[in-house]
Design goal:
Distance between the termini: 28 Å
Number of strands: 22
Strand content: 15-25%
Largest sheet: 8 strands, parallel, barrel
Shape: elongated
Strand order of the largest sheet: 1-2-3-13-14-15-16-17
């Protein structure tokens, strides 16, 4: 198992059971659905298929948020550089003469000579004339404007609401459908995260905050603190800031998130050429490797697996590339030291690192309800696999977003006045054949928990000795 997880976007090309099984076999760890595309009925049926077929695979639903997009078009216009394209906030049009966008005030916020970017910045238009709801533009490049493509207007203050009416509806849909993570777009504050969290049923779904504009970068630390995980959406980040700085921004976000033990998904165009080609470019493979070396918990495929012709091949290539990069890290040739505070969990994490280097530990076991211990340990990129056990079924499944981690649900009570549940957890691992006689385990848990008391117990065990002592069959 590669330590770095792979998020695969499920779309028309991969929503059938045989395709989902093939993606899982190739290395998919998390299934992503893009709420900006397809109907809610399609999403609900796809969610049910994934939950029934791959019950251990967490589902991430990206909700549209305040991102501006073209609507679903009957006609997707092609154009040459210099041609006129008319965008409009009048939703009655279908693309034949004018291309509607979903932000009703766009025509009010623009002025002549403003620049509009579309489809992750691959299309560029200059505003020439504003006529009521119609925005007349000059195409600066040759291309095609397709349905549901993102629209960006850099350096213009748009009056979009932080949490839209559609967000309210999508969060309720996600909660009712039982997805594990919600991805929210253009997050610029902890308040945005907490507003979305307030719309959920409580602890679930977990929140993945997407940092993809200058506001998100400026308030990066508070966003990371508030969210359960971070996504670096490099497509919007490139057009909302500047392309030449995206790699630096990626490193800054990853460093901050690692310091806070929060997992990060690196997304957008990692294997873009494999949408239509069976092999990636060398630059794409290098991009994935560098994301892993920088500390990414997961790398993400979008169109490559949603609509691409080589979805399984793309996951296989990403898995192989991540495995090689993880092996390089584990050989300690490349490792960046992160300054940590002196809290008990942080120091215990350092102690675990020392034990894992000094003893022939083969597996790490974290007995944790919420997943705090799993997050702290996984962010250290140990070469040993981490088995994270929880008696909360949703929490256990969510641990699969963490690098090098397998979430395990155990249907037993965790005692607050003893540690008797710890050997019972190990027995369950034995019964499920997740540990064997040749394993040496490092086990961490919290003993006699009180508020703020976390990860204060470390044990080491030879499984062969445990099996004899506990009389495991």
């Amino acid at each position: 198992m590669s330590s770095t997880k792979i998020v695969a976007t499920i779309g028309p090309a991969t929503c059938k059971p045989n395709s989902l099984l093939a993606l899982r076999q190739a290395g998919m760890s998390i299934a992503r659905l893009n709420g900006s595309h397809n109907s809610l009925d399609w999403h609900l049926s796809t969610i049910k298929v994934i939950q029934e077929l791959l019950p251990d695979v967490p589902i991430l639903l990206d909700i549209p948020g305040r991102k501006i997009r073209t609507t679903q078009l009957d006609y997707e216009p092609c154009f040459e550089a210099g041609d006129e394209i008319i965008l409009t906030t009048n939703l009655e049009h279908d693309g034949h003469h004018k291309v509607p966008v979903n932000y009703p005030d766009l025509h009010k916020d623009l002025s002549p000579n403003d620049v509009i970017l579309a489809d992750d910045g691959t299309l560029r238009f200059t505003v020439s004339v504003l006529n009521g709801q119609d925005i007349h533009c000059r195409a600066e490049v040759t291309g095609q404007l397709k349905s549901r493509k993102g629209i960006n207007v850099p350096q213009i203050e748009l009056r979009t609401k932080e949490v839209t009416d559609r967000d309210h509806m999508m969060v309720k849909f996600a909660t009712d459908a039982g997805v594990d993570f919600i991805g929210i777009s253009f997050v610029e504050s902890a308040k945005h995260v907490e507003t979305i969290r307030g719309l959920t049923s409580g602890s679930w779904p977990r929140i993945v905050a997407k940092i993809e504009n200058s506001g998100g970068l400026e308030n990066m630390n508070e966003v990371i603190d508030a969210a359960d995980a971070i996504m670096i959406d490099r497509g919007d980040l490139a057009v909302e800031t500047n392309l030449e700085s995206v790699a630096i921004f990626q490193k800054q976000i990853l460093n901050s998130a690692t310091d806070r033990s929060k997992p990060v998904i690196v997304a957008t165009e990692l294997l873009h050429t494999m949408i239509e080609n069976p092999f990636p470019t060398k630059a794409e493979v290098s991009d994935i490797s560098n994301a892993v070396l920088d500390g990414a918990s997961a790398t993400m495929l979008s169109g490559e697996t949603a609509v691409g012709e080589y979805a399984v091949e793309a996951v296989t290539m990403m898995q192989r590339t991540c495995t090689v990069a993880n092996h390089y890290i584990n050989k300690s040739i490349y490792r960046e030291n992160v300054k940590l505070d002196n809290s008990i969990p942080k120091v215990m994490g350092d102690a675990i690192a020392s034990i894992c280097q000094s003893l022939p530990i083969t597996k790490i076991v974290a007995v944790t309800i919420s997943g705090y211990a799993a997050r702290v340990i996984s962010m250290k990129n140990f070469h040993q696999p981490l088995l994270a056990l929880s008696n909360d079924v949703m929490a256990a499944k969510s641990f699969n977003i963490l690098p090098g981690t397998q979430g395990v649900f155990v249907d037993i009570p965790f005692s607050k006045i003893s540690t008797d549940h710890v050997p019972e957890c190990l027995s369950i691992l034995w019964q499920r054949k997740l540990i064997n006689l040749d394993d040496m385990l490092l086990v961490t848990a919290v003993a006699y928990p009180k508020s703020g008391n976390r990860m204060n117990l470390i044990q080491t065990h030879n499984v062969r000795d445990l099996a004899e002592t506990m009389e495991w069959a």
